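Please review this one:
***
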Amino acid sequence: MSIPRAERALIRLEQLAREERAAIAAEDVGMLCHVCTLLPDAEAKLEAAGVDGIAGIGERLAEIRSAHEASETFLTKRMADTMEALRQFGGVRRTMRGYGAPSRQNTGRVSSEV
């Protein structure tokens, strides 16, 4: 007996939700972004197949949605952390310039100074 298309599509989304949670647990932003690129296709397949007659569909979709929300929260926090680190780096760079330290901007030219 073969699995109906809708059930197969839902199983795929559940698998991706588990992978989202695993990437969050491992703090693996790259993997999480990769999983997120797979979601639209999986969601489109489920939508095309329809969800009528799938047992426990509400709970299963709620669990998938929960994983998406956890991903969004994780990525938002990581972006805020990155913004803060960049802000601090900018402050350090300005302070160094204030003390006469040379700027390390890449001009595209090779220097012969040693």
